[in-house]
Prior knowledge:
This protein is of the alpha/beta class.
Amino acid sequence: MINTENLSFSYLEENTENNTVKEEIILKELNLTIKKGTFTAILGHNGSGKSTLAKHFNAILLPTGGKVYIKNLDTSDKENIFKIRQSAGMVFQNPDNQMVAAIVEDEIAFAPENLGVKSSEIRKRVDECLKIVNMEKFSQSSPSRLSGGQKQRIAIASVLAMNPEILILDEPTAMLDPKGRNEVMATIKKLNKENSITVILITHYMDEAVTADRTIVMNDGKILLDGTPNEVFRNVEQIKSIGLDVPQVTELAFELKKHGINIGNDILTVDECFNALTSFIGGITHA
């Protein structure tokens, strides 16, 4: 679905005081393949390049070096942009920045209307998308009266109305409370598992990354770690060395190991930690 070949990207910063131009390199020759139907989480501290990378996946940004292909379509070819943005929809951190209509169902209908979709098909898509994000009863509501989590689910529904095969989410839960985060994450997982939508989630929440099929850690414009959540989060010291955290239970297991209590190095959830500790204690008791 997505393939990058030596992808590089840089900005040119002009200093008007001394009339000089400085190149700021954001992405450095990235090679990455994302397969259909997978759920990939991308982590990194501010300035690591993760959001810049995400914006290349639906041609908001274009490479200054290398290539990006979405379903084998070259993003640098202007004739491909329309097809690429139909295939790859993007949801941003602040849902208010994506809201254009006064009524929820009009918001969801906006994109397909602009694509020239027939009225009967638009009605069908609106109803289906509201159902997918569990917001049917808010169809006649004003987006401004919704909670943060509800707004973000409407933003997701608005993108889904274009029938994308790829959903790119740039820190969609960053501005939400725990309830809103849970609502949005449940929606994302449902879209991936039940609708087979390829999901790319940019996040700084470790507990969101552990639910993905694949976790990528970026640092200084490069891919530092890439693998399953278990494979990636085993590297506790390396991850913490670049200013990121690991799931709390993973760090607990790491600290326990330092003190001779080895319950495993692939603990990601509270349940896994509980089971591992119970097994360890049971082993001591029987011994």
